[in-house]
Write a structure and sequence with these properties.
The chain is mainly beta and about 230 residues long. Helices cover about 10% and strands about 45% of the residues. The protein is globular and about 50 Å long.
Length: about 230
């Protein structure tokens, strides 16, 4: 029996049958590649891609913990990222920040000065077409601070490209790039940012591929240094 050759080349055949399956499901290739415009920002289908920004990799379904020191001694800051949520039709990654006592069974989250360590926060993040991580929604202590819409441009939380001296502002906090090769303890080649809000400021340190490794407050001032240091998993 003579074998008939398929009239389509292998790659064309795959694309042909894929289009048939998608059509049968009521889908189109355009649905997977459609861009969304929010103000001046453009978001592609991969807006929720983990690892798109080297300093802010957004590792999905992994809990990252930071140990407090100074004023935050005895507390733990936990961060996690979860996908499968959309804001204004743009796929996002939900970044959640929670605080707890390092002592089992202790619910008190006040510092020695009597202030609250920090309120729980939820951020819905997306990577735009330029590689910048933008905030599409921000909720603090259950109160919505910001939510994007097609008419406003979501603020940049972490640019995709950085140079010394770059600065940007997000919800009253001004970020400035101080160094792209900073050293902290045994870690080198770190991104060092100055984060200023009013008369207060802190330094954030980021490692490529790992994200935030430490936050320092009260440095170069008369107050006792405080902050958060990455804990080993």
């Amino acid at each position: 029996m003579k074998t008939l050759k398929h009239p389509l080349k292998p790659m064309r055949a795959i694309a042909f049958y894929t289009s048939i399956l998608m059509a049968g499901a009521g889908l189109s290739q355009q649905a997977f590649s459609q861009n969304h415009q929010l103000g001046d920002a453009t978001f592609a289908a991969a807006s929720d891609k983990s690892g798109a920004n080297k300093y802010w990799p957004m590792p999905l379904e992994i809990i990252t913990r930071y140990a407090g020191y100074g004023e935050y001694e005895g507390f733990i800051r936990s961060e996690s990222y979860h996908g499968l949520e959309s804001v204004a039709a743009v796929k996002t990654v939900k970044w959640s920040i929670r605080y707890s006592s390092a002592l089992a069974g202790v619910q008190d989250l006040t510092t020695p000065t009597g202030s609250l360590v920090a309120s729980p926060e939820d951020w819905w993040l997306a990577v735009d077409a330029k590689g910048d991580i933008r905030v599409l929604k921000f909720v603090r202590a259950g109160v919505t601070i910001f939510e994007a819409s097609p008419k406003n441009t979501p603020p940049v939380l972490m640019p995709g490209k950085l140079a010394a001296g770059d600065t940007w502002t997000v919800f009253g906090k001004t970020f400035t790039v101080l160094d792209l090769g900073a050293t902290l303890g045994k870690d080198g080649n770190l991104l060092k940012l100055k984060v200023a809000e009013g008369n207060e400021f802190a330094f954030d340190y980021y490692a490529a591929g790992r994200g935030l490794v430490a936050t320092q407050e009260g440095v170069d001032t008369t107050s006792t240094p405080s902050g958060w240091a990455l804990m080993k998993r």
